[in-house]
């Protein structure tokens, strides 16, 4: 019996999948509906659930309309965190099958999360007299998420896990404690490298070959949909300071490393943990950084291959050229949360698409797709999304390459003339243009 239960290193990966499948059969009957390889990303869905608690707690204090709009704003995040009962259950089965402890701290977090969702649901289905009921789809999302958590993490469920499953796991650990420790360390390192808090939240790259002189800045905070937190902003600020006087750079390209997401805006979860006196300076810092982007002497392009809401769109507005995939979702949604765009949105959007249309979009918090954004001149081009979810990025690369091939000083002076001239009357603008023209007359670009 002991030999039969022992899991060897060679068979460990297959044993994990088999154990997860056994747990699924035990609770629900039938096999897991998919056979996805177990990875650190799936394992860390448990951590994502724990990290979601502050936002869920905040939901309890919101009015019903604010709550409704917040859930609309976060619908993709809800799906990622576990609106799919299959994904949530499979994640837990994975945790059971490997050397990840499900301790009392985790159980407390899950219970508090379930409580927060229960109260959230009550606020959705029982609005005040002057409030409208929430959409059925949002209530259903709450129900599914709560059910997922309840079945995955409730102590009574854990206590009913067949002893042979847990025994197999424990016996593997007992086989080679050093090996298991090494495995756990490697898994943790892999998770952090992919989505963990110690991973670089910003990737920068001097492109070479056909894209020489193009500097790429890539947002890389997958677990928070590239939300603008302190660490990401600090890295972005330092990067901008380091390149502002680099004459070898002729174009800066902003993109996302996270599929279907550019930037979900400011990190509301992190903001909830800030003392009130820090919130104002934090927002001011975002505005300052976006002004640095706008003030770069070289052209800036942003590839919008997915979601760009709130501060994410404000970042894009600070760039010279915006390329969007047709599947992109763009909007200044701050009024849905009872605030206004605070990092340049109320100023740059009207200058780009006109005052009347900007007012309409900001007042309503409306979200546009790529084609709609193109029709109102919010983006320069819209491209059909490809299977790799990087169509806007590929098109942005083409434009960046074309810009980098032109006279570098001429391009810088053209940007300066346009930016400064657009803020003054025509005659003053013509004087600005003349000064920039005189600068390039004797340059080596000619």
Automatic annotation (TrEMBL):
It holds the Pfam family SIP1. The keyword Lyase applies. GO terms for molecular function: lyase activity. Keywords: Lyase. One of its GO terms (cellular component) is mitochondrion. InterPro entries: ClpP/crotonase-like_dom_sf, Enoyl-CoA_hydra/iso, Enoyl-CoA_hydra_C, Gemin2/Brr1. This is Uncharacterized protein. It comes from Adineta steineri.
């Amino acid at each position: 019996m002991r030999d039969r239960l022992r899991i060897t290193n060679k068979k460990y990966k297959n044993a994990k999948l088999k154990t997860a499948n056994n747990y699924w059969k035990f609770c629900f009957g039938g096999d897991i509906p998919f056979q996805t390889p177990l990875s650190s990303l799936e394992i860390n869905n448990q951590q994502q659930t724990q990290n979601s608690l502050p936002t869920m707690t905040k939901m309890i204090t919101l009015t019903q309309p604010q709550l409704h709009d917040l859930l609309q704003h976060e619908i993709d995040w809800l799906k990622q965190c576990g609106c799919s009962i299959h994904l949530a259950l499979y994640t837990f089965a994975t945790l059971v099958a490997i050397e990840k402890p499900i301790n009392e701290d985790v159980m407390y977090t899950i219970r508090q999360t379930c409580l927060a969702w229960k109260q959230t649901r009550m606020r959705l289905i029982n609005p005040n007299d002057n409030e409208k009921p929430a959409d059925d789809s949002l209530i259903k999302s709450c129900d599914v998420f709560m059910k997922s958590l309840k079945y995955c993490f409730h102590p009574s469920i854990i206590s009913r896990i067949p002893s042979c499953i847990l025994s197999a796991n424990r016996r593997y650990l007992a086989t080679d404690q050093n090996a298991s420790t090494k495995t756990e360390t490697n898994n943790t390192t892999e998770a952090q490298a992919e989505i963990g808090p110690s991973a670089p939240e910003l990737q920068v790259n001097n492109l070479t070959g056909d894209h020489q002189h193009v500097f790429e800045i890539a947002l890389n905070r997958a677990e928070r949909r590239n939300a603008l937190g302190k660490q990401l902003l600090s890295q972005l600020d330092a990067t901008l300071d380091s390149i502002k006087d680099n004459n070898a750079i002729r174009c800066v390209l902003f993109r996302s490393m996270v599929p279907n997401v550019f930037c979900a805006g400011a990190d509301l979860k992190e903001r909830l943990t800030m003392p009130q006196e820090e919130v104002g300076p934090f927002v001011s810092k975002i505005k300052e950084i976006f002004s640095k982007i706008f003030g770069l002497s070289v052209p800036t392009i942003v590839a919008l291959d997915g979601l760009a809401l709130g501060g994410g769109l404000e970042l894009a507005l600070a760039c010279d050229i915006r390329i969007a995939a047709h599947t992109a979702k763009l909007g200044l949604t701050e009024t849905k949360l009872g605030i206004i765009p605070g990092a340049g949105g109320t100023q740059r959007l009207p200058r780009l698409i006109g005052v009347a249309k900007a007012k309409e979009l900001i007042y309503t918090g409306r979200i546009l797709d790529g084609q709609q954004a193109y029709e109102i001149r919010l983006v320069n081009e819209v491209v059909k999304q490809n299977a790799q979810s990087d169509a806007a990025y590929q098109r942005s690369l083409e434009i960046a390459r074309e810009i980098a091939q032109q006279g570098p000083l001429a391009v810088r002076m053209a940007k300066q003339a346009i930016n400064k001239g657009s803020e003054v009357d025509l005659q003053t603008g013509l004087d600005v243009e003349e000064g920039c023209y005189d600068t390039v007359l004797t340059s080596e670009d000619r």
